[in-house]
């Protein structure tokens, strides 16, 4: 046997696959390997001569050939800032972690499970580790167990189990080439791959992708000899086309559903509906149904036909940990007439620590034993309470969670990719019940106050009117203030400025969110006759109110949504809000209709989004209530006017002015209308209220809240005693039988301690008095 020849063969295969994968990805790793280069020294993986040397596919000849490199072993202290220069002096100690390891938490070398070479460092007590290919990547086919019950699975290059499996005794021709290809393409960001794999991860005979169809070799996916690729509309002319088998459509049922969902979602996102959630349909690489289905806030394990595998499910927050391997195997073994004597967790995963006849053993996520005769006691010397369920972590440590493998009695390579550094919105949980009251005097609770701006915390700074300097860290203004002319003044772009107002003077201060936006629901007065109103993020009152006592379920989510969409420039939003700013049950917008959750507006469980022409088929459609047209009277009139306007513009008539018809978010007429240069306050039916009016040049100052409240209070049977201004707004200064007091624009009293010649402005948080710019 001539080792050198074997080596160069392997090396050529290595280069060939490099070309396939694309030179960009591996270019940094393998610089300038001329194809004529032969790799003459090729030690077998186990045969590195010295204990601090480890096999690497890119060890020698500029990273072109495999060999042994020196590196720090698992568990050895390391330094992340160490020089990367590799030394050839055998006497010197290596400075970086060995291939497959990474200098991790606590500055010791830890397993990098995304790298298959990490398996070379796993202690012998672990009964199975994945196989690597000649380039040190995870091999596509990984086999487990014996010839009878053993199985082979397909793996991605990063060691994640992907679609495709077979019983071990039938896996001779299994290559996983199709599964690997799809996984690679999807990892590159292609979400419309339509390659079809067989259940064992090989290629189906007939393939279509990106508008082209061809007859494929099942092990490699290349065109079978003597056939040609054709445009997809000619697919039935291919020799591998079989009418009984393939029918009239290439996409399988699950795929059709998934694709139409993607299209629908795109349309929604284009129109600005970012928060509307859809039920995601996941499909496997053979076009069958994915391993779970998402319904509301839960995900349930499913079989290939989409039926649920009861009772296995989990909440969306823990979805990433769910693999449903055990749930699916249970059914698989049952259908195959075999016995599966292992226990599943509630989420359909295998219980890592299993027990049989009183003996404890560990299984990996695929259900194969990795350690037997596990002692009852945990390796950390703590004994579990005897009743504790066997699946509590503590006996079987999975690698990413508990890297202190030197102490573990039992150890599983879960080949998930290495855990990313935590980012604010993913893995960090801000475990904190901190309140403003917990902050020191002068400090303000904000959403980004601690942990690198990821979690809420108290922030202080210079107080109102104190001297400040933007360039000196301890001379910055407190949150809610800004430094202008070396003085801290109110920053009215954030709600937090109200925390600095003199609370003895200002009669009412709105609620803020920790991020500086205004709370959506702002309540005034007492629980008996008080009212709550909807506010925009930037502190403007928007559509939606209710009596305080009725507001437990009031979210203002619909009003907020519409306000936001309109600010983004969409003037054709047709979401319908209820009087209190929540969502009406039936919603249509951007050509689609759906049954909405009242509080969030998301699609109701078990219902779908339909094209607007089909809205009467929705379960929430009620002919008495909704009639023939989704748009209300005001909305239809407003739309008609916009169309006319468009026509005028199209003909070049620019100077014509039209009276805009403002509608409320519930489809009723807005608070005012403009006619012949005059603004009139109007009720919901479009009729004028009293004689409130003002020149249209003053339009921006008109809110008609007082005018409308005269009717609201009358309908509620409550006497209305406040004075309105001629424009329909509340007068700030009120006088009842000589008793002087101030109200704000919502008509709520802010002070009764006002002198006859005094202005009310300083008692009102958003008045001109506090506008310092
Ligand atoms: C077409 O597919 C059906 C169903 O799998 C099979 O029974 C039949 O033999 C196939 N016909 C040809 C010509 O291969
Ligand atoms: C339809 O709406 C009307 C009017 O609100 C109501 O009385 C009726 O109960 C509704 N019908 C159904 C089936 O919900
Ligand atoms: C209001 O009037 C009182 C006397 O009537 C006077 O002393 C005071 O300065 C006046 N205040 C203002 C703000 O004009």
Automatic annotation (TrEMBL):
GO terms for biological process, alphabetical: cell-matrix adhesion
Subcellular location: Secreted
UniProt signal peptide: 1-27
Domain Thyroglobulin type-1: 113-176, 178-240, 492-556, 558-620
GO-annotated cellular components: basement membrane; extracellular space
InterPro entries noted in UniProt: Dev_reg/Prot_inhib, Thyroglobulin_1, Thyroglobulin_1_sf
Entry-linked Gene3D superfamilies: Thyroglobulin type-1
Source superkingdom: Eukaryota
Chief place where the protein resides: secreted
Disulfide bonds: 178-197, 558-577
UniProt keywords, alphabetically: Disulfide bond, Repeat, Secreted, Signal
PANTHER family named in the record: NIDOGEN-2 (PTHR12352:SF3), SECRETED MODULAR CALCIUM-BINDING PROTEIN (PTHR12352)
Designated name of the protein: Thyroglobulin type-1 domain-containing protein
């Amino acid at each position: 046997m001539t080792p050198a020849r074997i080596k160069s063969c392997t090396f050529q295969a290595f280069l060939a696959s490099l070309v396939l994968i694309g030179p960009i990805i591996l270019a940094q790793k393998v610089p300038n390997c001329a194809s004529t280069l032969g790799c003459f020294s090729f030690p077998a993986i186990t045969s590195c001569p010295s204990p601090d040397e480890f096999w690497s596919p890119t060890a020698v000849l500029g990273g072109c050939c495999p060999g042994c490199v020196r590196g720090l072993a698992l568990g050895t202290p390391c330094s992340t800032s160490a020089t990367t220069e590799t030394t050839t002096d055998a006497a010197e100690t290596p400075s970086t972690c060995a291939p497959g390891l990474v200098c991790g938490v606590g500055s010791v070398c830890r397993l990098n499970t995304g790298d298959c070479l990490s398996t070379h460092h796993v202690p012998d007590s672990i009964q199975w580790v994945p196989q690597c290919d000649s380039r040190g990547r995870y091999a596509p086919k990984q086999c487990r167990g014996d010839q009878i019950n053993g199985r082979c699975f397909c793996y991605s290059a990063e060691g994640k189990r992907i679609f495709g499996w077979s019983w071990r005794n039938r896996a001779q021709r299994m290559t996983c080439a199709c599964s690997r290809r799809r996984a690679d393409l999807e990892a590159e960001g292609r979400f419309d791959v339509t390659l079809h794999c067989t259940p064992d991860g090989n290629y189906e005979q007939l393939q279509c992708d990106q508008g082209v169809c061809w007859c494929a070799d099942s092990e490699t996916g290349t065109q079978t000899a003597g056939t040609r690729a054709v445009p997809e509309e000619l697919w039935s002319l291919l020799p591998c086309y079989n009418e009984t088998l393939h029918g009239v459509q290439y996409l399988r049922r699950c795929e059709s559903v998934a694709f139409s969902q993607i299209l629908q979602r795109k349309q929604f996102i284009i129109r600005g509906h970012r928060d509307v959630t859809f039920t995601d349909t996941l499909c496997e690489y053979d076009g069958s149904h994915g391993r779970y289905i998402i319904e509301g806030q839960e995900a349930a394990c499913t079989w290939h036909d989409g039926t649920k595998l009861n009772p296995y499910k989990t909440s969306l927050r823990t979805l990433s940990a769910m693999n449903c391997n055990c749930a699916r195997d249970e059914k698989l073994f049952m259908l195959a007439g075999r016995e599966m004597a292992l226990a599943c967790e509630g989420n359909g995963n295998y219980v890592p620590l299993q027990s049989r006849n009183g003996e404890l053993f560990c299984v990996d996520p695929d259900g194969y034993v990795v350690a037997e005769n596990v002692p009852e006691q945990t390796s950390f010397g703590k004994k579990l309470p005897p009743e504790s369920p066997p699946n509590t972590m503590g006996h079987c440590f999975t690698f990413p969670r508990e890297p202190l493998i030197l102490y573990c009695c039992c150890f599983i390579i879960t080949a998930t990719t290495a855990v990313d550094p935590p980012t604010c919105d993913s893995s960090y949980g801000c475990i904190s019940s901190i309140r403003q009251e917990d902050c020191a005097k002068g400090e303000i609770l904000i959403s980004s106050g601690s942990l690198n701006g990821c979690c809420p915390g108290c922030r202080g700074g210079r107080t109102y009117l104190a001297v400040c300097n933007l360039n000196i860290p301890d001379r910055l203004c407190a949150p809610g203030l800004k430094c202008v002319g070396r003085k801290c003044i109110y920053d009215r772009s954030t709600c937090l400025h109200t925390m600095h107002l003199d609370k003895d003077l200002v009669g009412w201060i709105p609620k803020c969110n920790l991020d500086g936006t205004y709370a959506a629901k702002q309540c005034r007065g007492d629980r008996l006759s008080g009212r709550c109103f909807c506010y925009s993020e930037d502190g403007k009152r928007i559509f939606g109110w209710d009596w305080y006592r009725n507001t437990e379920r009031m979210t203002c989510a619909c009003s907020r949504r519409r306000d936001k969409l309109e600010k983004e420039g969409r003037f054709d939003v047709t979401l319908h809000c209820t009087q209190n700013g929540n969502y009406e049950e039936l919603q249509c917008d951007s050509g689609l209709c759906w049954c909405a959750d009242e509080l969030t507006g998301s699609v109701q469980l078990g219902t779908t989004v339909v094209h607007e022409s089909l809205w009467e088929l929705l379960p929430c459609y009620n002919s008495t209530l909704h009639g023939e047209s989704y748009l209300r009277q005001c909305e239809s009139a407003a739309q008609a006017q916009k169309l006319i306007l468009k026509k005028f513009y199209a003909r070049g008539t620019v100077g014509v002015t039209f009276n805009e018809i403002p509608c409320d978010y519930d489809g009723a007429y807005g608070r005012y209308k403009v006619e012949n240069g005059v603004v009139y306050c109007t009720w919901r039916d479009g009729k004028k209220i009293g004689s409130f009016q003002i020149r249209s040049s003053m339009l921006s100052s008109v809110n008609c809240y007082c005018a409308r409240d005269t009717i609201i209070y009358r309908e509620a049977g409550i006497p209305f005693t406040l004075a309105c201004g001629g424009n329909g707004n509340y007068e700030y200064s009120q006088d009842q039988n000589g008793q002087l007091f101030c109200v704000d624009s919502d008509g709520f009293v802010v002070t009764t301690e006002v002198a006859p010649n005094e202005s009310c402005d300083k008692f009102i948080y958003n008045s001109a008095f506090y506008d310092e710019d």
